[in-house]
Amino acid sequence: GAVVSQHPSWVICKSGTSVKIECRSLDFQATTMFWYRQFPKQSLMLMATSNEGSKATYEQGVEKDKFLINHASLTLSTLTVTSAHPEDSSFYICSAWDSRYPNQPQHFGDGTRLSIL
Amino acid sequence: DQQVKQNSPSLSVQEGRISILNCDYTNSMFDYFLWYKKYPAEGPTFLISISSIKDKNEDGRFTVFLNKSAKHLSLHIVPSQPGDSAVYFCAASFNFGNEKLTFGTGTRLTIIP
Question: Between β-strands B86-93 and B107-112, what pairing exists: parallel, antiparallel or unpaired?
Answer without folding.
Answer: antiparallel
